[in-house]
Amino acid sequence: NDTTGTLSLNETSKLPGFIAMIKQGIWHIWIGLDHILFLLALILPSVVRRRKDSTIYSWEPVMTFKAAFIYIIKVVTFFTIAHTITLTLASLEIITLPSILVESIIAFSIGLAAYHNIKPIFKMKDWIIAFIFGLFHGFGFASVLSDLGLTGEFLTLSLLGFNIGVELGQIVIISVIFPILYLIRTYKFYPKFLVYTSVFLIIISL
User: Fold this and answer.
1) Strand stretches in the chain, DSSP E
2) Mean pLDDT (the chain, rounded)
3) Rounded to the nearest 5°, which phi and psi values hold at 134?
4) pTM of the predicted model over 0.70
5) Which of 5, 14, 129, 139 is least buried, going by the fewest C-beta atoms within 10 A?
6) Half-sphere exposure of residue 8, counting CA atoms within 13 Å on the CB side?
């Protein structure tokens, strides 16, 4: 209800703007259902391994936390590298793609990653999906910066802050989901839970 305010033009600082962009990055990934669902599809198989038989429920729990954690680190690293590349290119207007194409491919990425959990497309190379579709998720992140109208001398700093925020938000999401999956990985229902959740993700992506 306060309709007035005072803004000092003598007190300038880059830090408040930088922190604000970090918050924007965190907030965007937390409200970005498409990014969260894609991460979920990638994380689901992190705590189990495929058996050699061909049934869709042929999963067995990983024996150590280290094995699951290394999987998560590898997949998320390739996802991060990919979306950082395209977020930078799009924000600097070096490469631009139509929004309808980007959003459609992001939706498709959720379904494909989930389908890969049911029937492997890239055997033992889950990072390929994370990297390829991470490129398009980067274009999705860039659309937020475009909506904010960020240009000029502070674009690079704003881009860095936003990207840091996205990574922090991503780490929080993984920190919440991964421990739960690790705790329930040994239960007999987990292979079915993985498959049914993947089917649900496919339906949402469609």
Assistant:
1) 48-50, 59-61
2) 86
3) -60, -30
4) yes
5) 5
6) 4
